[in-house]
Amino acid sequence: MKSLLVRFFLFSLVIAACSIAVTAWLASQATTGAIRQEQGDALETDAQIFDELVRYAATHKDWAGAKSDVDGIAQKYGRRIALTDGNGTTLVDTGGKNSPQLPITPKALVDPLNVNGKIDPRAVGPFKLDDEEYRTLHAYADQLLQCTNNRITLMEAPNGRPRLSNLGPGELSTWDDCLVGYSLYTLTVTEKAAYGQLQALFSKCLDQRGPYGRNYDKPPGPGPDNFDWEITTVNGAPPEAVACMDTSRREQLRPYVAAPAQLFLTSPTGEEPMAIDLSTTGATRITLVALGILAIAGFASWVTATQLVRPIRALTAATKRTAEGDRTARVAGGAGEIGELARSFNSMSEKLAETERQRQAMVSDVAHELRTPLGNITGWLEATQDGLAEPDPHLIAMLLEESLLLQRLVDDLHDLAQADAGTLRLHPEPIALDDVVDQVVNAQQNREILLRAETTPVHISADPVRLRQALGNLVANAVRYTPPGGEVVVKLFQWQDRAVLEVTDTGTGIASEDLPHVFDRFWRADKSRSRRTGGSGLGLAITRHLVEAHGGTVSVTSTLGEGSTFRISLPRA
Protein backbone atom coordinates (compact mmCIF):
# COMPACT_ATOMS: atom_id res chain seq x y z
CA MET A 1 0.00 0.00 0.00
CA LYS A 2 1.73 3.17 -1.21
CA SER A 3 -1.05 5.65 -0.46
CA LEU A 4 -0.26 7.82 2.56
CA LEU A 5 -3.92 7.90 3.55
CA VAL A 6 -4.17 4.11 3.37
CA ARG A 7 -0.92 3.69 5.32
CA PHE A 8 -2.07 5.97 8.09
CA PHE A 9 -5.49 4.35 8.14
CA LEU A 10 -4.09 0.82 8.36
CA PHE A 11 -1.53 1.91 10.92
CA SER A 12 -4.29 3.39 13.10
CA LEU A 13 -6.33 0.22 12.72
CA VAL A 14 -3.39 -1.93 13.78
CA ILE A 15 -2.70 0.20 16.84
CA ALA A 16 -6.37 0.29 17.79
CA ALA A 17 -6.75 -3.45 17.25
CA CYS A 18 -3.67 -4.23 19.34
CA SER A 19 -4.82 -1.92 22.12
CA ILE A 20 -8.31 -3.37 22.15
CA ALA A 21 -7.04 -6.95 22.00
CA VAL A 22 -4.52 -6.50 24.81
CA THR A 23 -6.94 -4.55 26.97
CA ALA A 24 -9.66 -7.11 26.42
CA TRP A 25 -7.28 -9.97 27.20
CA LEU A 26 -6.03 -8.38 30.39
CA ALA A 27 -9.52 -7.44 31.47
CA SER A 28 -10.83 -10.90 30.75
CA GLN A 29 -7.93 -12.51 32.61
CA ALA A 30 -8.43 -10.24 35.60
CA THR A 31 -12.22 -10.45 35.75
CA THR A 32 -13.18 -13.86 34.34
CA GLY A 33 -12.78 -15.60 37.67
CA ALA A 34 -14.70 -12.94 39.54
CA ILE A 35 -17.44 -12.87 36.93
CA ARG A 36 -17.76 -16.64 36.92
CA GLN A 37 -17.94 -16.74 40.68
CA GLU A 38 -20.46 -13.89 40.72
CA GLN A 39 -22.57 -15.55 38.04
CA GLY A 40 -22.41 -18.87 39.80
CA ASP A 41 -23.39 -17.30 43.10
CA ALA A 42 -26.23 -15.42 41.40
CA LEU A 43 -27.58 -18.56 39.73
CA GLU A 44 -27.31 -20.52 42.95
CA THR A 45 -29.05 -17.74 44.86
CA ASP A 46 -31.82 -17.56 42.27
CA ALA A 47 -32.31 -21.32 42.48
CA GLN A 48 -32.49 -21.24 46.27
CA ILE A 49 -35.00 -18.36 46.23
CA PHE A 50 -37.11 -20.19 43.65
CA ASP A 51 -37.04 -23.42 45.71
CA GLU A 52 -38.15 -21.66 48.88
CA LEU A 53 -40.98 -19.88 47.05
CA VAL A 54 -42.11 -23.20 45.48
CA ARG A 55 -42.05 -24.76 48.94
CA TYR A 56 -44.28 -21.98 50.26
CA ALA A 57 -46.67 -22.29 47.30
CA ALA A 58 -46.83 -26.09 47.73
CA THR A 59 -47.81 -25.83 51.40
CA HIS A 60 -50.20 -22.83 51.26
CA LYS A 61 -53.49 -22.35 49.47
CA ASP A 62 -52.74 -18.75 48.34
CA TRP A 63 -50.24 -15.87 48.58
CA ALA A 64 -52.36 -13.77 50.94
CA GLY A 65 -50.12 -14.27 53.98
CA ALA A 66 -46.82 -14.64 52.13
CA LYS A 67 -45.45 -11.10 52.71
CA SER A 68 -43.55 -11.84 55.90
CA ASP A 69 -42.12 -15.13 54.59
CA VAL A 70 -41.04 -13.53 51.27
CA ASP A 71 -39.52 -10.55 53.13
CA GLY A 72 -37.46 -13.00 55.14
CA ILE A 73 -36.27 -14.77 51.98
CA ALA A 74 -35.39 -11.44 50.34
CA GLN A 75 -33.44 -10.29 53.41
CA LYS A 76 -31.67 -13.65 53.64
CA TYR A 77 -30.39 -13.55 50.06
CA GLY A 78 -30.09 -9.79 49.56
CA ARG A 79 -32.48 -9.60 46.63
CA ARG A 80 -35.70 -7.80 45.83
CA ILE A 81 -38.49 -10.35 45.22
CA ALA A 82 -41.74 -9.54 43.44
CA LEU A 83 -44.58 -11.91 42.55
CA THR A 84 -47.41 -11.06 40.12
CA ASP A 85 -50.36 -13.00 38.80
CA GLY A 86 -51.05 -13.68 35.12
CA ASN A 87 -52.66 -10.25 34.68
CA GLY A 88 -49.64 -8.40 36.06
CA THR A 89 -51.25 -7.60 39.43
CA THR A 90 -48.65 -7.52 42.20
CA LEU A 91 -49.13 -10.25 44.80
CA VAL A 92 -45.98 -9.66 46.87
CA ASP A 93 -43.18 -7.10 46.46
CA THR A 94 -40.33 -6.66 48.93
CA GLY A 95 -39.21 -3.36 47.32
CA GLY A 96 -39.93 0.07 48.76
CA LYS A 97 -41.88 3.01 47.36
CA ASN A 98 -38.88 4.29 45.46
CA SER A 99 -38.01 0.93 43.93
CA PRO A 100 -37.41 0.94 40.18
CA GLN A 101 -39.91 -0.54 37.76
CA LEU A 102 -39.87 -4.32 37.43
CA PRO A 103 -38.30 -5.92 34.34
CA ILE A 104 -40.56 -6.80 31.44
CA THR A 105 -39.63 -10.49 31.44
CA PRO A 106 -40.12 -12.52 34.66
CA LYS A 107 -37.32 -14.65 36.00
CA ALA A 108 -39.46 -17.77 36.39
CA LEU A 109 -43.00 -19.04 37.02
CA VAL A 110 -43.62 -20.29 40.57
CA ASP A 111 -46.06 -23.20 40.16
CA PRO A 112 -45.67 -26.20 42.50
CA LEU A 113 -47.76 -28.33 40.14
CA ASN A 114 -45.40 -27.69 37.21
CA VAL A 115 -41.75 -27.61 38.21
CA ASN A 116 -39.87 -28.64 35.09
CA GLY A 117 -42.99 -30.53 34.00
CA LYS A 118 -43.39 -32.38 37.31
CA ILE A 119 -45.38 -31.93 40.51
CA ASP A 120 -43.27 -30.71 43.42
CA PRO A 121 -43.19 -33.53 46.03
CA ARG A 122 -43.93 -31.02 48.82
CA ALA A 123 -47.41 -30.44 47.34
CA VAL A 124 -49.16 -33.12 49.43
CA GLY A 125 -52.66 -31.62 49.66
CA PRO A 126 -55.19 -34.08 51.13
CA PHE A 127 -52.45 -36.67 51.76
CA LYS A 128 -51.04 -34.72 54.71
CA LEU A 129 -51.38 -36.74 57.94
CA ASP A 130 -53.28 -35.36 60.89
CA ASP A 131 -51.55 -35.05 64.26
CA GLU A 132 -52.81 -38.38 65.65
CA GLU A 133 -51.74 -40.29 62.53
CA TYR A 134 -48.39 -38.56 62.62
CA ARG A 135 -47.71 -39.56 66.24
CA THR A 136 -48.84 -43.15 65.65
CA LEU A 137 -46.63 -43.74 62.59
CA HIS A 138 -43.58 -42.15 64.22
CA ALA A 139 -44.09 -44.41 67.26
CA TYR A 140 -44.02 -47.41 64.89
CA ALA A 141 -40.86 -45.98 63.36
CA ASP A 142 -39.12 -45.77 66.74
CA GLN A 143 -40.07 -49.37 67.51
CA LEU A 144 -38.75 -50.49 64.12
CA LEU A 145 -35.40 -48.81 64.74
CA GLN A 146 -35.07 -50.51 68.11
CA CYS A 147 -36.04 -53.89 66.63
CA THR A 148 -33.40 -53.65 63.90
CA ASN A 149 -30.73 -52.15 66.18
CA ASN A 150 -30.65 -49.06 63.98
CA ARG A 151 -29.49 -51.06 60.94
CA ILE A 152 -31.96 -49.16 58.77
CA THR A 153 -32.46 -45.47 58.17
CA LEU A 154 -35.82 -43.78 58.14
CA MET A 155 -36.72 -40.38 56.68
CA GLU A 156 -39.88 -38.33 56.72
CA ALA A 157 -41.93 -37.91 53.54
CA PRO A 158 -43.49 -34.50 52.79
CA ASN A 159 -46.90 -35.64 54.09
CA GLY A 160 -45.32 -36.57 57.46
CA ARG A 161 -45.08 -40.37 56.99
CA PRO A 162 -41.76 -42.01 58.05
CA ARG A 163 -40.25 -44.13 55.28
CA LEU A 164 -37.21 -46.21 54.54
CA SER A 165 -34.32 -44.42 52.87
CA ASN A 166 -31.69 -47.18 52.52
CA LEU A 167 -33.74 -50.24 51.51
CA GLY A 168 -35.05 -50.97 48.06
CA PRO A 169 -37.99 -53.10 46.99
CA GLY A 170 -37.49 -56.77 47.89
CA GLU A 171 -34.98 -56.00 50.67
CA LEU A 172 -37.37 -56.13 53.61
CA SER A 173 -35.93 -59.32 55.13
CA THR A 174 -33.89 -57.28 57.62
CA TRP A 175 -37.06 -56.38 59.50
CA ASP A 176 -39.34 -59.33 58.65
CA ASP A 177 -39.17 -60.39 62.33
CA CYS A 178 -40.27 -56.91 63.39
CA LEU A 179 -44.01 -57.07 62.91
CA VAL A 180 -44.29 -53.39 63.60
CA GLY A 181 -42.60 -52.70 60.20
CA TYR A 182 -45.70 -53.63 58.28
CA SER A 183 -47.82 -51.48 60.54
CA LEU A 184 -45.59 -48.58 59.55
CA TYR A 185 -46.72 -48.92 55.91
CA THR A 186 -50.43 -49.37 56.57
CA LEU A 187 -52.48 -46.61 54.98
CA THR A 188 -54.05 -44.16 57.37
CA VAL A 189 -57.62 -42.94 57.18
CA THR A 190 -56.46 -39.65 55.66
CA GLU A 191 -54.45 -41.40 52.98
CA LYS A 192 -57.26 -43.82 52.15
CA ALA A 193 -59.66 -40.91 51.70
CA ALA A 194 -57.18 -39.11 49.48
CA TYR A 195 -56.54 -42.21 47.40
CA GLY A 196 -60.28 -42.70 47.05
CA GLN A 197 -60.68 -39.18 45.77
CA LEU A 198 -57.82 -39.70 43.35
CA GLN A 199 -59.37 -42.97 42.16
CA ALA A 200 -62.63 -41.19 41.39
CA LEU A 201 -60.86 -38.45 39.39
CA PHE A 202 -58.80 -41.04 37.57
CA SER A 203 -61.84 -43.13 36.62
CA LYS A 204 -63.71 -40.06 35.46
CA CYS A 205 -60.83 -39.11 33.20
CA LEU A 206 -60.66 -42.61 31.74
CA ASP A 207 -64.41 -42.60 31.06
CA GLN A 208 -64.05 -39.36 29.14
CA ARG A 209 -61.46 -40.96 26.85
CA GLY A 210 -63.96 -43.45 25.42
CA PRO A 211 -64.10 -47.27 25.31
CA TYR A 212 -60.36 -47.71 25.77
CA GLY A 213 -60.37 -45.70 28.98
CA ARG A 214 -63.38 -47.58 30.43
CA ASN A 215 -61.61 -50.91 29.88
CA TYR A 216 -58.62 -49.75 31.94
CA ASP A 217 -59.59 -49.59 35.60
CA LYS A 218 -56.38 -50.32 37.52
CA PRO A 219 -56.87 -48.39 40.76
CA PRO A 220 -54.21 -45.96 41.93
CA GLY A 221 -52.53 -46.50 45.24
CA PRO A 222 -49.61 -48.34 46.83
CA GLY A 223 -48.87 -51.83 45.70
CA PRO A 224 -46.26 -54.49 46.30
CA ASP A 225 -43.72 -52.55 44.20
CA ASN A 226 -44.64 -49.04 45.37
CA PHE A 227 -44.50 -47.94 48.97
CA ASP A 228 -44.50 -44.18 48.23
CA TRP A 229 -47.57 -42.06 48.80
CA GLU A 230 -46.83 -40.10 45.57
CA ILE A 231 -48.57 -41.53 42.52
CA THR A 232 -46.46 -40.44 39.50
CA THR A 233 -47.07 -43.28 37.02
CA VAL A 234 -49.39 -46.17 36.47
CA ASN A 235 -47.24 -49.26 36.08
CA GLY A 236 -47.61 -50.92 32.69
CA ALA A 237 -50.26 -48.43 31.58
CA PRO A 238 -50.46 -46.90 28.12
CA PRO A 239 -49.83 -43.15 27.64
CA GLU A 240 -53.55 -42.33 27.89
CA ALA A 241 -53.74 -43.76 31.39
CA VAL A 242 -50.54 -42.05 32.47
CA ALA A 243 -51.88 -38.72 31.19
CA CYS A 244 -55.13 -39.28 33.09
CA MET A 245 -53.25 -39.98 36.30
CA ASP A 246 -51.13 -36.86 35.92
CA THR A 247 -54.20 -34.72 35.20
CA SER A 248 -56.10 -36.23 38.13
CA ARG A 249 -53.28 -35.57 40.59
CA ARG A 250 -52.99 -31.92 39.52
CA GLU A 251 -56.77 -31.48 39.75
CA GLN A 252 -56.77 -33.00 43.23
CA LEU A 253 -53.89 -30.83 44.50
CA ARG A 254 -54.89 -27.50 42.91
CA PRO A 255 -57.17 -26.34 45.80
CA TYR A 256 -54.36 -26.97 48.31
CA VAL A 257 -51.55 -24.96 46.64
CA ALA A 258 -51.06 -21.28 45.79
CA ALA A 259 -51.91 -20.10 42.29
CA PRO A 260 -49.05 -19.82 39.76
CA ALA A 261 -47.12 -16.52 40.11
CA GLN A 262 -44.56 -14.77 37.97
CA LEU A 263 -41.27 -14.23 39.78
CA PHE A 264 -39.13 -11.08 39.36
CA LEU A 265 -35.70 -10.81 40.96
CA THR A 266 -33.70 -7.58 41.05
CA SER A 267 -31.04 -5.94 43.18
CA PRO A 268 -32.22 -4.24 46.37
CA THR A 269 -33.15 -0.57 45.98
CA GLY A 270 -30.25 1.88 46.41
CA GLU A 271 -27.41 -0.63 46.29
CA GLU A 272 -24.80 -0.60 43.53
CA PRO A 273 -23.26 -3.77 42.08
CA MET A 274 -20.04 -4.73 43.71
CA ALA A 275 -17.08 -3.42 41.73
CA ILE A 276 -14.44 -5.88 40.63
CA ASP A 277 -11.11 -4.95 42.18
CA LEU A 278 -8.04 -5.78 40.07
CA SER A 279 -5.10 -7.16 41.94
CA THR A 280 -1.82 -5.24 42.16
CA THR A 281 -0.19 -7.76 39.83
CA GLY A 282 -2.90 -7.28 37.23
CA ALA A 283 -2.68 -3.48 37.43
CA THR A 284 1.10 -3.62 37.04
CA ARG A 285 0.80 -5.90 34.02
CA ILE A 286 -1.71 -3.56 32.42
CA THR A 287 0.61 -0.59 33.03
CA LEU A 288 3.65 -2.35 31.54
CA VAL A 289 1.75 -3.53 28.47
CA ALA A 290 0.24 -0.07 27.96
CA LEU A 291 3.71 1.48 28.11
CA GLY A 292 4.97 -1.09 25.60
CA ILE A 293 2.14 -0.30 23.20
CA LEU A 294 2.82 3.42 23.65
CA ALA A 295 6.50 2.92 22.83
CA ILE A 296 5.71 0.88 19.71
CA ALA A 297 3.12 3.39 18.56
CA GLY A 298 5.54 6.26 19.16
CA PHE A 299 8.32 4.58 17.19
CA ALA A 300 6.01 3.73 14.30
CA SER A 301 4.61 7.27 14.28
CA TRP A 302 8.14 8.71 14.25
CA VAL A 303 9.16 6.55 11.30
CA THR A 304 6.01 7.42 9.38
CA ALA A 305 6.34 11.12 10.16
CA THR A 306 9.98 11.08 9.03
CA GLN A 307 9.02 9.50 5.72
CA LEU A 308 6.32 12.14 5.33
CA VAL A 309 8.43 15.16 6.32
CA ARG A 310 11.44 14.36 4.11
CA PRO A 311 9.68 14.93 0.74
CA ILE A 312 7.75 17.87 2.20
CA ARG A 313 11.04 19.56 3.13
CA ALA A 314 12.32 18.95 -0.40
CA LEU A 315 9.14 20.51 -1.80
CA THR A 316 9.53 23.49 0.52
CA ALA A 317 13.10 24.11 -0.63
CA ALA A 318 12.11 23.78 -4.30
CA THR A 319 9.21 26.20 -3.76
CA LYS A 320 11.56 28.77 -2.25
CA ARG A 321 13.94 28.48 -5.21
CA THR A 322 11.00 28.88 -7.61
CA ALA A 323 9.83 31.99 -5.73
CA GLU A 324 13.37 33.42 -6.10
CA GLY A 325 13.15 33.02 -9.87
CA ASP A 326 14.70 29.60 -10.41
CA ARG A 327 12.50 27.95 -13.05
CA THR A 328 14.59 24.75 -13.08
CA ALA A 329 13.65 23.61 -9.54
CA ARG A 330 12.44 20.02 -9.50
CA VAL A 331 11.81 17.40 -6.78
CA ALA A 332 12.12 13.64 -6.90
CA GLY A 333 8.82 11.84 -7.39
CA GLY A 334 7.50 8.97 -5.35
CA ALA A 335 4.38 6.95 -4.64
CA GLY A 336 1.07 7.89 -3.08
CA GLU A 337 -0.13 11.40 -2.28
CA ILE A 338 3.38 12.79 -1.72
CA GLY A 339 4.52 11.49 -5.10
CA GLU A 340 1.44 13.00 -6.73
CA LEU A 341 2.23 16.32 -5.04
CA ALA A 342 5.82 16.16 -6.29
CA ARG A 343 4.65 15.47 -9.86
CA SER A 344 2.18 18.33 -9.64
CA PHE A 345 4.93 20.66 -8.45
CA ASN A 346 7.23 19.58 -11.28
CA SER A 347 4.42 20.11 -13.78
CA MET A 348 3.74 23.55 -12.32
CA SER A 349 7.44 24.43 -12.47
CA GLU A 350 7.65 23.32 -16.09
CA LYS A 351 4.50 25.33 -16.88
CA LEU A 352 6.03 28.39 -15.21
CA ALA A 353 9.23 27.94 -17.21
CA GLU A 354 7.23 27.57 -20.42
CA THR A 355 5.15 30.63 -19.52
CA GLU A 356 8.33 32.59 -18.88
CA ARG A 357 9.75 31.54 -22.23
CA GLN A 358 6.50 32.53 -23.93
CA ARG A 359 6.51 35.87 -22.12
CA GLN A 360 10.05 36.60 -23.23
CA ALA A 361 9.20 35.53 -26.78
CA MET A 362 6.06 37.67 -26.72
CA VAL A 363 7.97 40.73 -25.56
CA SER A 364 10.55 40.13 -28.29
CA ASP A 365 7.84 39.58 -30.92
CA VAL A 366 5.85 42.65 -29.88
CA ALA A 367 8.99 44.75 -29.94
CA HIS A 368 9.87 43.39 -33.39
CA GLU A 369 6.34 43.88 -34.73
CA LEU A 370 6.25 47.43 -33.43
CA ARG A 371 9.79 48.27 -34.57
CA THR A 372 9.18 47.76 -38.30
CA PRO A 373 6.12 50.01 -38.79
CA LEU A 374 7.40 52.54 -36.27
CA GLY A 375 10.78 52.57 -38.02
CA ASN A 376 9.15 53.12 -41.38
CA ILE A 377 6.90 55.90 -40.07
CA THR A 378 9.76 57.58 -38.21
CA GLY A 379 12.16 57.30 -41.17
CA TRP A 380 9.78 58.77 -43.73
CA LEU A 381 8.67 61.51 -41.37
CA GLU A 382 12.30 62.49 -40.75
CA ALA A 383 12.99 62.38 -44.47
CA THR A 384 10.01 64.66 -45.10
CA GLN A 385 11.11 66.99 -42.33
CA ASP A 386 14.61 67.20 -43.81
CA GLY A 387 13.19 67.87 -47.28
CA LEU A 388 14.42 64.59 -48.69
CA ALA A 389 10.89 63.36 -49.46
CA GLU A 390 7.77 65.05 -50.58
CA PRO A 391 4.52 64.44 -48.62
CA ASP A 392 2.72 63.25 -51.72
CA PRO A 393 -0.38 60.98 -51.67
CA HIS A 394 1.76 57.86 -52.15
CA LEU A 395 3.83 58.60 -49.04
CA ILE A 396 0.77 59.46 -46.99
CA ALA A 397 -0.93 56.17 -48.06
CA MET A 398 2.18 54.18 -47.09
CA LEU A 399 2.37 55.89 -43.67
CA LEU A 400 -1.38 55.25 -43.17
CA GLU A 401 -0.90 51.57 -43.97
CA GLU A 402 1.91 51.33 -41.40
CA SER A 403 -0.21 53.07 -38.77
CA LEU A 404 -3.12 50.74 -39.50
CA LEU A 405 -0.75 47.81 -39.00
CA LEU A 406 0.17 49.24 -35.58
CA GLN A 407 -3.53 49.75 -34.81
CA ARG A 408 -4.34 46.11 -35.65
CA LEU A 409 -1.50 44.92 -33.43
CA VAL A 410 -2.68 47.09 -30.55
CA ASP A 411 -6.28 45.90 -31.04
CA ASP A 412 -5.18 42.27 -31.04
CA LEU A 413 -3.21 42.75 -27.84
CA HIS A 414 -6.22 44.49 -26.28
CA ASP A 415 -8.52 41.59 -27.23
CA LEU A 416 -6.11 39.07 -25.73
CA ALA A 417 -5.82 41.13 -22.57
CA GLN A 418 -9.63 41.18 -22.25
CA ALA A 419 -9.80 37.41 -22.83
CA ASP A 420 -7.15 36.78 -20.17
CA ALA A 421 -8.91 39.07 -17.70
CA GLY A 422 -12.33 37.54 -18.43
CA THR A 423 -13.78 40.87 -19.54
CA LEU A 424 -14.28 39.97 -23.19
CA ARG A 425 -17.93 40.88 -23.80
CA LEU A 426 -20.23 39.32 -26.38
CA HIS A 427 -23.51 40.70 -27.70
CA PRO A 428 -25.35 37.67 -29.11
CA GLU A 429 -28.35 37.98 -31.39
CA PRO A 430 -30.11 35.74 -33.91
CA ILE A 431 -28.04 35.74 -37.11
CA ALA A 432 -27.86 33.94 -40.45
CA LEU A 433 -24.43 32.34 -40.37
CA ASP A 434 -24.26 32.05 -44.16
CA ASP A 435 -24.49 35.86 -44.37
CA VAL A 436 -21.45 36.14 -42.08
CA VAL A 437 -19.52 33.76 -44.32
CA ASP A 438 -20.41 35.77 -47.43
CA GLN A 439 -19.28 39.03 -45.78
CA VAL A 440 -15.92 37.55 -44.74
CA VAL A 441 -15.27 35.96 -48.14
CA ASN A 442 -16.13 39.17 -49.99
CA ALA A 443 -13.84 41.21 -47.73
CA GLN A 444 -10.90 38.81 -48.23
CA GLN A 445 -11.05 38.43 -52.02
CA ASN A 446 -7.62 38.17 -53.64
CA ARG A 447 -6.77 38.21 -57.36
CA GLU A 448 -3.85 35.75 -56.96
CA ILE A 449 -5.87 32.88 -55.36
CA LEU A 450 -9.36 31.48 -55.72
CA LEU A 451 -11.48 32.23 -52.60
CA ARG A 452 -14.99 30.82 -52.61
CA ALA A 453 -17.78 29.77 -50.20
CA GLU A 454 -19.94 26.63 -49.99
CA THR A 455 -22.79 27.29 -47.55
CA THR A 456 -26.19 26.08 -46.46
CA PRO A 457 -28.64 28.22 -44.50
CA VAL A 458 -27.83 28.01 -40.77
CA HIS A 459 -29.26 30.24 -38.05
CA ILE A 460 -27.70 30.58 -34.58
CA SER A 461 -27.52 33.08 -31.74
CA ALA A 462 -24.08 34.73 -31.68
CA ASP A 463 -22.19 38.04 -31.71
CA PRO A 464 -21.90 38.78 -35.47
CA VAL A 465 -18.96 41.22 -35.07
CA ARG A 466 -16.85 38.82 -32.99
CA LEU A 467 -17.80 35.89 -35.20
CA ARG A 468 -16.69 37.77 -38.34
CA GLN A 469 -13.46 38.61 -36.54
CA ALA A 470 -12.79 34.95 -35.67
CA LEU A 471 -13.67 33.63 -39.15
CA GLY A 472 -11.81 36.53 -40.79
CA ASN A 473 -8.60 35.62 -38.93
CA LEU A 474 -8.81 32.05 -40.26
CA VAL A 475 -9.54 33.15 -43.83
CA ALA A 476 -6.79 35.82 -43.74
CA ASN A 477 -4.34 33.26 -42.39
CA ALA A 478 -5.30 30.76 -45.15
CA VAL A 479 -4.94 33.42 -47.87
CA ARG A 480 -1.62 34.55 -46.46
CA TYR A 481 -0.05 31.09 -46.59
CA THR A 482 -1.57 29.91 -49.88
CA PRO A 483 0.73 30.53 -52.88
CA PRO A 484 -0.59 32.24 -56.04
CA GLY A 485 -2.85 29.98 -58.06
CA GLY A 486 -4.02 28.16 -54.96
CA GLU A 487 -7.53 27.85 -53.57
CA VAL A 488 -9.24 28.64 -50.26
CA VAL A 489 -12.74 27.22 -49.62
CA VAL A 490 -15.00 28.27 -46.72
CA LYS A 491 -17.73 25.71 -45.98
CA LEU A 492 -20.78 26.02 -43.72
CA PHE A 493 -22.99 23.07 -42.83
CA GLN A 494 -24.92 21.48 -39.95
CA TRP A 495 -23.74 18.37 -38.13
CA GLN A 496 -26.09 16.98 -35.46
CA ASP A 497 -26.87 19.96 -33.17
CA ARG A 498 -23.76 21.93 -34.20
CA ALA A 499 -23.03 24.57 -36.83
CA VAL A 500 -19.66 23.84 -38.48
CA LEU A 501 -17.40 26.30 -40.34
CA GLU A 502 -14.44 24.89 -42.26
CA VAL A 503 -11.64 26.92 -43.89
CA THR A 504 -9.59 24.71 -46.23
CA ASP A 505 -6.54 25.93 -48.16
CA THR A 506 -3.99 24.43 -50.53
CA GLY A 507 -1.10 26.21 -48.89
CA THR A 508 2.19 25.05 -47.41
CA GLY A 509 0.62 23.10 -44.57
CA ILE A 510 1.84 22.63 -40.99
CA ALA A 511 4.15 19.93 -39.66
CA SER A 512 2.52 17.45 -37.26
CA GLU A 513 4.84 18.38 -34.39
CA ASP A 514 3.79 22.04 -34.75
CA LEU A 515 0.02 21.46 -34.76
CA PRO A 516 -0.38 21.58 -30.91
CA HIS A 517 1.10 25.11 -30.89
CA VAL A 518 -0.70 26.85 -33.74
CA PHE A 519 -3.16 28.56 -31.39
CA ASP A 520 -0.44 29.87 -29.05
CA ARG A 521 0.08 33.61 -29.20
CA PHE A 522 3.13 34.80 -31.22
CA TRP A 523 3.94 31.23 -32.19
CA ARG A 524 5.30 30.65 -35.72
CA ALA A 525 6.64 27.52 -37.29
CA ASP A 526 8.77 29.55 -39.73
CA LYS A 527 9.99 32.89 -38.40
CA SER A 528 11.39 34.03 -41.69
CA ARG A 529 8.17 33.13 -43.56
CA SER A 530 6.16 35.00 -40.97
CA ARG A 531 8.21 38.11 -41.52
CA ARG A 532 7.75 37.83 -45.26
CA THR A 533 4.01 37.24 -45.15
CA GLY A 534 3.28 39.65 -42.32
CA GLY A 535 0.84 39.16 -39.45
CA SER A 536 1.30 39.58 -35.72
CA GLY A 537 1.04 35.92 -34.73
CA LEU A 538 -2.01 36.68 -32.56
CA GLY A 539 -4.89 35.97 -34.95
CA LEU A 540 -5.29 32.27 -34.21
CA ALA A 541 -5.00 32.83 -30.45
CA ILE A 542 -7.74 35.47 -30.65
CA THR A 543 -9.89 33.16 -32.77
CA ARG A 544 -9.64 30.41 -30.14
CA HIS A 545 -10.74 32.79 -27.34
CA LEU A 546 -13.65 34.15 -29.37
CA VAL A 547 -14.91 30.69 -30.35
CA GLU A 548 -14.64 29.38 -26.79
CA ALA A 549 -16.51 32.46 -25.55
CA HIS A 550 -19.39 31.35 -27.81
CA GLY A 551 -19.29 27.86 -26.26
CA GLY A 552 -17.65 26.33 -29.33
CA THR A 553 -14.36 24.68 -30.26
CA VAL A 554 -11.73 25.27 -32.91
CA SER A 555 -9.36 22.63 -34.29
CA VAL A 556 -6.94 22.11 -37.17
CA THR A 557 -5.79 19.26 -39.38
CA SER A 558 -2.93 19.69 -41.82
CA THR A 559 -0.57 17.86 -44.13
CA LEU A 560 2.80 19.46 -44.79
CA GLY A 561 3.03 20.66 -48.42
CA GLU A 562 -0.65 19.98 -49.18
CA GLY A 563 -2.64 22.43 -47.08
CA SER A 564 -4.62 22.83 -43.86
CA THR A 565 -8.22 22.75 -42.66
CA PHE A 566 -9.39 24.83 -39.69
CA ARG A 567 -12.77 23.87 -38.22
CA ILE A 568 -15.04 25.94 -35.95
CA SER A 569 -17.89 24.06 -34.23
CA LEU A 570 -20.62 26.19 -32.60
CA PRO A 571 -23.74 25.16 -30.66
CA ARG A 572 -26.99 26.00 -32.42
CA ALA A 573 -29.03 26.38 -29.22
UniProtKB/TrEMBL annotation:
Classification via SMART domains: HAMP, HATPase_c, HisKA
Documented EC number(s): 2.7.13.3
Domain HAMP, chain residue ranges per copy: 306-357
Signal peptide: 1-24
Catalysed transformations (reactions): ATP + protein L-histidine = ADP + protein N-phospho-L-histidine
Subcellular localization(s) per the UniProt record: Cell membrane
Keywords attached to this entry: Kinase, Membrane, Phosphoprotein, Signal, Transferase, Transmembrane, Transmembrane helix, Two-component regulatory system
Protein name per its UniProtKB record: histidine kinase
